[in-house]
Design brief:
This protein has 271 residues and is α/β, with parallel strands linked by helices. It has eight helices and nine strands. It has a six-stranded mixed sheet with strand order 5-6-7-3-8-9, sandwiched between helices. Strands 2-1-4 form a three-stranded antiparallel sheet. Helix 3 crosses helix 4.
Length: 271
Amino acid sequence: MSQSTVTTPPAAVVSPPVGLAARGVNRAFTVKGKELVALQDVDLEIAKGEFVSIIGPSGCGKSTLLRIFADLLPVTSGTPVVDGVTPQLAREDRRLGVVFQSANLMPWRSVLRNVALPLEVMGRSKAGREKTAAELLKMVGLEGYEKHLPRQLSGGMQQRVAIARALSTDPKVLLMDEPFGALDEITRERLNQELMEIWARLNPTVLFITHSIPEAVYLSNRVVVMAARPGRVVEVVDVDLPQPRTPEMRDAPEFHAIEARIRHLLATGGH
């Protein structure tokens, strides 16, 4: 009597949860009667909790893609996904935090009240929102500045306030459009380090746009390199460097090798 052989099916491959995704995303504008393709067939997937930077020449569609994820621009075609839902649902559900190059603080409101503004809009109690805002200001190194007005702060300090405000609703996704681009190099590197510490503590999915190759390498798990006319993804470069990142890593041969790879891709457009 022959024995039957029982075979075990292979284990299913489980994909990591999606933090952000662009699936065949296209975006075109009409300028003076002519169609301008800002993004062409962009396919990108970012896992939850991942830190990904986008770098590319001006006009490659970096900010356009971020604004699509932020529900500030519609797509012409394709599907954007934010924390597993549409950008609109993510925004309405307060899953999104956005930081732009300009801090965009309300000049008549104190630092504390600027950070608490999203919670005020949500109807949180005054005591609750002020407590949360004070905790976030401490996290970004601005404890003691709660009553200051924005004009009394340096540019770097204003950006810290903007980051605290973006974090006030405990977002699952943080979108950052060149937040340190207007700052001097010393301030920029210090804020890079502070951002790494915030990300490690809160673990949001981060999409970070920059024109700085060293900044992209230092901050990211992966770097998306884009080319212009039309805006498209050239390559996604893995940044296989240990976490947590330290300033000394900027001098490591591995760091410079990744920089060189990205610089080559930018120069050649992936060709």
